[in-house]
Amino acid sequence: MTSLTHEPERSARPAMLNRLDSPLTYQILTFALFAIGWQIYGTFFGGLLVPTFTETVAALVPTLVSAEFWEAFVVSNQALVLGFAAAVAIGVPTGIVLGRFRTLERLSNVYLNILLVTPMAAIIPLLVMSVGFGLLSRVILVTLFAVVMIIVNVRAGIRQVDPSLIQMARTFGAGEAQIWREILLPGALPSIMTGIRLGLGRAVTGMVIVELLMVSLALGGLILEYRGSFNGPALYAVIVAIIAEALVLISAAQWLERRIAPWAPSAGKARS
Amino acid sequence: MIEINQLTKTFTSQDGTPVHALGGVDLTVNDNEFLTLLGPSGCGKTTMLKMIAGLQGWDGGTITIDGKAVTGPGPDRSMVFQNFALLPWATVMDNVCFGLRLRGTERRAREERAQELIEMVGLSGFESKRPGELSGGMQQRVGIARALAVDPQILLMDEPFGAVDEQTRRLLQEELLSIWERNRLTVVFVTHSMEEAVLLGDRVVLMSARPGQISEIVEVPLARPRSSDVGGLERSREYTEITAHLWDQLRSMHSEHRAVEAVR
After folding, report:
1. At B200, which CATH number?
2. Residues of chain B with pLDDT under 70
3. Is B64 helix (H, G, I), strand (E, B) or coil?
C-alpha cells in the first residue's frame, strides 16, 4: 500500500527534486557524510597513523604524479593481468566441463570447496617455498584467488541452462556440437560474465595480499614502507588509489557484462 | 500416420520403486487428424508425446510414422513446448528461424519463411524484440511459428497454452484452430483441460494413470471449420455433453486415486 500513498506525492513534487532522486545523489550524499565523519575523527582522535580526509586528498595528488607510485602500480598490475588472464583461461573451460559432466563435478567438488574456504594467505609460505619470490609466485596467487569464483559461476551457468531448450534444439535435429554452440554457451554467458567480474575483484585482493605478506614490493611494498615511516596521509593515498583501480575495473566488467549479455535480467545490478 | 503398438515405459523413482509411466498403449493417429491427449497428471501423456518426438526412449513396443520406426527426432515432426522454450538471447526473428538454421537453410530463404509465419501468428512489428519483452501469449505464438517454419507433417504440442492466462488461452485456441484449418497437418496435442481437448480435437484420447493407459477414445462430432463460431460451439449440446462426460471420467479417476492413497 505504500506505493499507492506515495506515488501521487512524488509526481506532485517539482521536476528538479525528481531529477535529484537518483542513485548517484544518494552515493554522493553518503560519501559526503563519510568524508565529514572521517575528517572529525582524524582531527580529534587520529593520532599519528589516521590522517584527516583533507590530508589524504592532499597526499593523493603528489602520489598520483610520483614516478615511485606508477612504477609500483605497473609492477603490481603485471601480476594482476597475467594472473587474472590465467584464471579466466583455466576457470571458464573448467567450469563448463564441470557443469556439463556430473561425474567430474562429483570428483572435483571437494577440492573446489577447499579452494573456496581456505584463506589463501595461508598457502603463501607454501608457494614461496616451491616457486620462490618472483613474478611467477605472485601470478599463481592471483590466479588461485580468482579462479575458484570463475569456475563456480561458470559451472552454475551451464547447469542452469533450461533443459527444455536442449530438447527443443534436439527436435530440430541438433547434434552435441550444435547444442554446445547454440544453447549451452550462449545460455551460460551471463553467468560466465558474472564469474569473470567477481573473479576480477578477487584477483585485485590477491594482488595486494601477496605483496603485503609475501614479497614487500610494488603497491603492497609502498603501503608497508609508509606505515613504517608513519606517513599516514601517503599510506591512505595508496589505499585510496588501489580502491579506485578496483572500482574502475569492476565497473568496466559490469559494463561489459551488460553489453555482452543484455538479455540477462539483472546483469551487474542485483547480484553485484 | 502414427502407429503406436504396446508401448511400455517404467521409470525408477528416487526411492527406488518402479513407476509405470506407460503400460501397453496402442494408438493410431491418422494423417491430418487433430488428436488431443487428455488425462490426469502422471498418466504419461507428455511422456508419450516426447517418445513420438524422439526425445525419450521406451522399454517395449514400437512407434512408427508412415511405416518407419521412430529412433530419434526427425524433420517430419516439430514440437511446441509448455514453457515456450525460446532462446532468451535471440530476437523473435532469430527464434523463428532457429529450426531452419539448424537444418542448414540459407539466410535469405529462412528469413523469408520466418517472416510469413511471424505475420501468420500476428507478430509483425515484433521481429527484433527478445522473448523477455513479450507477454506469455506472444511468446507461445513465437513457439508455434518456429515449429511451423520447418514445414513439419506432424505438430506435437505439449500443453502449449498451459502457462498463459485464461483469456489469452482462449484467443490462442481460436487462432490455432484457424491456422490448422488453413494448413491441415497432423497434430497431437497434450492438455489437461477437457474444454480445450473437445474444442480442438477430432478425437479425444482419455488416459488414466498408474500405469498410463488409454481408458477411452471419444469422437468429437462438432463440424469444421470451428474457428468461425467458437462461442456458438461452446454452447452446443454435443460440446456440453462430451465435456461433461470427460469430466465424469476424470473425476472418478481422481477419486479412485484418492481411495488408493487412503488405503496405503
Report:
1. 3.40.50.300
2. 263-264
3. strand
**Domain annotation covers residue B137:** no
Is B242 among the domain residues? Answer: yes
Structure confidence at residue A3 (pLDDT): 45
Provide, as residue numbers in chain B, all residues whose Cβ is less than 8 Å from the Cβ of A164: 81, 83, 85
DSSP SS3 for A13: coil
* B115 CA: distance to closest CA in chain A (Å): 19
A167/B81 CB distance under 8 A: yes
Q: State residue B4 phi and psi, 5-degree precision.
A: -115, 130
Q: Chain A window 231-270: which residues touch B at a Cβ cutoff of 8 Å?
A: 261, 263, 265
pLDDT digits 0-9 by tens, A156-182 = 999 999 999 999 999 999 999 999 999
- Mention every residue, 6+ apart, whose C-beta is less than 8 A from residue B62: B3, B4, B5, B6, B7, B69
Of B53, B89, B132, which is closest to A171 when you measure between CB atoms? B53
**Are B34 and B219 within 8 A, CB to CB?**
no
DSSP 3-state of A217: coil
**Contacting residues for A46 by C-beta, under 8 A, at least 6 apart:** A52, A232
User: What residues of B are in contact with residue A172 (Cβ under 8 Å)?
Assistant: 73, 78, 98-99, 102-103, 150
Alpha helices of B183-236 — where are they, by DSSP H? 194-200, 230-234
- pLDDT at residue A9 greater than cutoff 60: no
pLDDT at position A50, please? 80
- What is the four-CA torsion angle of B181, B205, B168, B229, rounded to 10 degrees? 50
Q: Which residues of B touch A265 (CB under 8 A)?
A: 132
CB-closest option in B81, B89, B102 to A178: B102
Domains of chain A with bracketed CATH: 55-260 (1.10.3720.10)
Domain count, chain B: 1
Evaluate whether residue B51 is within a structural domain: yes
Does the residue B120 lie in any domain? no
Taking CB atoms and an 8 Å cutoff, what residues of chain B touch A182? 87, 98, 102
Query: C-alpha cell of B73?
Result: 527426432
A137: closest CA of chain B, how far (Å): 40
Is there a contact between B83 and A165 if contact means CB atoms under 8 Å apart?
no
Please write the tens of the pLDDT for every residue from A40-89: 888 888 776 788 888 888 888 888 888 888 888 888 888 899 999 999 99
Percent of chain A with pLDDT over 70: 91
What's the domain range around B43?
Answer: 30-55+72-76+152-204+219-263
Angle at which helices A67-100 and A185-213 cross, to 10°: 140
Q: How far apart are the first and last CA of chain A?
A: 29
Q: Would you state the cell numbers that stand for residue A86, as one nine-digit string?
A: 590465467
